[in-house]
Amino acid sequence: MSYLYGLESIATDDAYCKYSDIRKYFDIAFIEKNVIWLNSLEIARLAVKNNFITNKEVDSLKKIFNEKNDPLSILKDEGGQHNNKPFEILLKK
Prior knowledge:
The chain has 93 residues and is mainly α. It has helices at residues 2-5, 22-32, 40-49, 55-69, 88-92.
């Protein structure tokens, strides 16, 4: 899911099973008990091509994931500093 979430991946391309080869890979993996790695970029492209998801939704997944990890990133920087002085009005009376 590294592509969908915009994460860096240490996996190389030869570590991934191509979607077109997945049936063969399942047979091998069943015998050898290996993990099957799929490239999320390839899966996302296939999903968009087959209308399971849109490019806009893929971008939204990335945005939501990043906001989950850094919730303060959604706050707008308005440039001005607002001083939090809840009792300031009492001093004026």
